[in-house]
Structure formats: C-alpha cells, structure tokens
Amino acid sequence: MKKIELDIVGLSYSQTQSGAYALVLGEVNGRRRLPIIIGSFEAQAIAIEIEKMTPSRPLTHDLFKSLGQAFNISIQEIIIYNLVDGIFYAKLVCFDGKKTVEIDARTSDAIAVSVRFDCPIYTYEFILSTAGIVIEGNDFVYLENINETPEEKTPTHSAVGSYNTLSEEELKSSLQQALTEEAYEKAAKIRDELNKRKSS
C-alpha cells in the first residue's frame, strides 16, 4: 500500500471537545488535511519541541528519545495505519542497526516522538479519503499558539499589559524562569511577546 507523507501544519483548540486540541496534518505537496483530536499534554509536548523550548527537566517524550539514543535505537518513520470508529492508530518503525521493529502507539504520542527524532510521518490513501478535508489555497499553513486556555483567548488588558511593559531583557529573564519552573503556558505567552517584537 502506497504511503503518503504528512507534515504538521496546525495546532489549535478543538471546537468540538473541551480541553482538547486539534492537530492538523497536511499532505506533502497536496491540499488535503487530516485533523486529529489530541490531549493537552501531548499538544504541549509537540509545541514545545517545534518551538525549540527547553524544559528544565525532560518530558516523557524527551525521556523516550534519550533512552532510544542511549541504546542506538532510531525511529525511522511514524505510520498512521488505521482509522476505526473515529480513532486513529499509529506505529513507530524503530531500527537498532540490525533489525526493524514496529511498535504500536497512540497517534499523539507517535507524533510527539517524531518531532524529537525528526522522522517522517506517513498515512495511507484510505485514511485521507475517509477523514481528510481539502483546503483551498494556503489558508491553513501555520502553527497556532496552543498554550492559551479557551478563557484566555481574549486576555484581559492587565494580562497583556504585564508583558507589554517589560523590556526585552526582562522578558528573556522571565522566559528562563518560567522554563525552570516548568510553567510552559506562561513561557509560551512570553515567547509570543518576544516574537511579536521581533516581527514589528
């Protein structure tokens, strides 16, 4: 069965499930998108790696990567291989230099691992045909900030102002402190303020 490569193109709040996130995978060189509902922990684990934020202590997926590297195990690819009753099934294709082993995994965990090992993500045509959506133009090629809670999507003036009034050095210091304390939501907001200043 021919594999279709996917990229991560979006990560945002789920409009259908409270406390969940929509991870959107896009067909490489195509217009189809595959939305997958994942939990907040996995969403943050994916976003932290994509944004190259460094937690003070390893997250579970970081530990998995360190363990794999310590024993010379590489992840060659992730395959989303089935869809049953709305649930996606994935596997890690691992290689230790001698043999290849496939390990079953939740799709969200598999993708959190894939961004750490920098390995490709694949699926099959029947899954994209069943659960994929077609996007016109390039309207969805972005990564949203997933670190706000729904109530925080429209922050109060005081919450925004607290970061607006800090200098760049103070923001960088606050970012480091937030990472040390493992306050990733706070760190993401500070990072967004720093990025906003760079682009303005």
Number of domains: 2
The whole-angstrom Rg is 18 Å
**N→C terminal distance:** 47 Å
Which stretches are poorly predicted, pLDDT < 50 over at least 5 residues? 138-161
Classify the fold: give the CATH topology of the largest domain. Answer: Bifunctional nuclease domain
Largest sheet: 8 strands, mixed
CATH class call of the largest domain: Alpha Beta
Give the helices and strands as they follow along the chain: EEEHHEEEHEHEHHH
Structural classification: alpha+beta
Strand portion: 25-35%
What does this 3D model show about the protein?
The longest helix has 16 residues, at 184-199. It is built from seven helices and eight strands. Helix content is 38%, strand content 30%. The relative contact order is 0.17. The chain folds into two domains: 3-134, Roll (Bifunctional nuclease domain); 155-199.
Could you give the topology of this structure?
Blueprint: E1 3-13, E2 20-27, E3 32-39, H1 40-50, H2 60-70, E4 74-84, E5 87-95, E6 100-106, H3 107-117, E7 121-124, H4 125-131, E8 133-134, H5 157-164, H6 168-180, H7 184-199
Parallel strand pairs: 4-7
Antiparallel strand pairs: 1-2, 1-7, 2-3, 3-8, 4-5, 5-6
Helix pairs in contact: 1-3, 2-3, 6-7
For this entry, give a set of tags.
2 domains, alpha+beta, 200 residues, 8 strands
Task: Write a brief caption for the model.
The chain has helices at residues 40-50, 60-70, 107-117, 125-131, 157-164, 168-180, 184-199; strands spanning 3-13, 20-27, 32-39, 74-84, 87-95, 100-106, 121-124, 133-134. The chain is of the alpha+beta class. Strands 6-5-4-7-1-2-3-8 form an 8-stranded mixed beta sheet.
